[in-house]
Amino acid sequence: MRTVYLDNNATTQPAPEVIEAMLPFFTELWGNPSSMHVFGGQVRRHVELARAQVAALIGADPSEILFTSCGTESDNMAIRGAVEAANAPINVITSRVEHPAVLEPCRMLKEHGVPVIELEVDGKGQIRLDDLRLALSRGRAVVSLMWANNETGVIFPIAEATELVKASGGIMHTDAVQAAGKLPIDVRHLPVDLLSLSGHKLHAPKGIGVLFIRRGTRIRPLLLGGHQESGKRGGTENVPYIVGLGCACKLAARALGDEITRVAALRDRLQAGILAACPDVRVNGDEAHRLPNTLNISFQYIEGESILYHLSDCGIAASSGSACTSGSLEPSHVIRAMGVPFMAAHGSIRFSLSRYNTAADIEYVLENLPPIIKKLRVISPFAAP
Amino acid sequence: MWEYTDKVLDHFRNPRNVGTIKDPDGVGEVGSMACGDALKLGFKLDKQGRIADVKFQTFGCASAIASSSALTEMIKGLTLAEAEKVTNQDIANFLGGLPEQKMHCSVMGREALEVAIANYRTGKTSKKILEGQVVCHCFGVTEDEIVRVVRENRLTTVEQVTNYCKAGGGCGKCRDEIEAIITRIRDEEPAVPVTPQPGPSLTTLQKIRLIEETMEKEIRPALKKDGGDIELIDVVDNRVVVALRGMCANCQVARFTLKDVVEAKLREFVAPNLVVEEAHP
Asked: What is the ipTM of this complex?
């Protein structure tokens, strides 16, 4: 059966070049990069090369790149580390639609008495800069706002937000896990202090992340127990994955131009095709400020999990903001924060593309999806007969 | 993906008895779109009083559709007295089992059948007959329903109750109450009377008293910690006008919490349609 993978905001296929680059570090190059002998020394060089490759993707200096185990660790370290390093009381400002890797540490800090403000979003999933201004007026803050949303692809006005935060003397963190490799990022022109990346969202394997820490930013380590990563993160470096991530960043930088334009055209074709073939659908999120690979769309009267299972029967992989898919009983916090009506929230499907998708993939989905929607609507008590 | 049995997937992919019945003898509708699943079931009896035809429509996940389809197959040809004896566990067994977190789908099937039979007998067309005190306000689950799933399925934890009837799966405030119900059933003690919640028919005076009480107990202590306070200015229908005092008065951020905290608390403890506004100085 043909398979079409459109769940790239969940995880991506590791690039073959990445896996090839990693393999020697499981076999002959297995030394500890900290060791003072040739086993360690030759490995150290590759770790530093990878650091430079990651830095190049976002315009950072290699010394500002810290390797972590995943995007969640990077987010936790950024927020908790910055709050703990502040030598005076500090507020935390974030948004309602952040990834749980940001929301949960913020809520933990709140339980410990740190004032936390969660900015609301409008119907398009956008924050209002005036809300941020107001929240900043309360005092110095660590601000964590995602560059782009994993569920809707909505891109926040990060440049404007960063300007406000820096003008107020605050610390700016952005979770750029979904943005990296899909949008150009250049920290030379964007004065964020902290920025999180995740390897497996850009065709590296799972288990490797990055926290960009601008030189001079005060941050407390999360993991104690070693001098690695300039004393900011204990633990022997995950060398094969670091090398893999370096390679993935090199490939991502190359794909940022024409490849991303091609992916955006495929996404637009998918959206137009669904809108033309299925009545009673709505696109969720700010279409004018949206990742080029993401389409979040609600099918009225039917529920997301049943759509996903029928798609899966056709070999098509996507995801849903419905309650049933998460094992929880409530639909996605992102979709709900946007004020999307319950039924549309339960029937929301996210298609997320990558550079490995083709026009034939999209046509295959457009052939198979409309009959599924029709079939489920016949079963639904809410659909018009 | 969930670990669905082949039978669940078969009934999901090829649901039996989909649709509506013309001039049904009984119709039952349960669930809601807000909860993420809903089921409408109708049946027609033959001259011997057996279920001659039954049809359903379901909004929900794969296991909700499969449970509905399975139920219709199970009750065809039964008398209402026989059909009434079908439990949610029977539906799950028919399907070769359901994931624990999806057991509420089988409960929804049993409930729809009950409502449909009640509709046949009484002619009432209420979507769902709510009996007893509502325990879980997020999903509208009553104490009677919780007691029933606990008894019928021998449930021992709050988590299981959530899996079977969703109660406790929203804000989580009712988990202690569910725990108490479980303990009570386990000990088979006589039912503990539940303090009645204020109904929708509050007089303005009662409403104001309740608002003040809620502010005193639920809201003021948190504000006082920050050196602030809140004062009730007026209550007009469902509009509650308040003024922020002390440190809160000049705090822009307090305005964020006005809607979030004050309104949410008042809606929870007083009436769900209240709107909180700030008094103009």
From this structure: 0.87
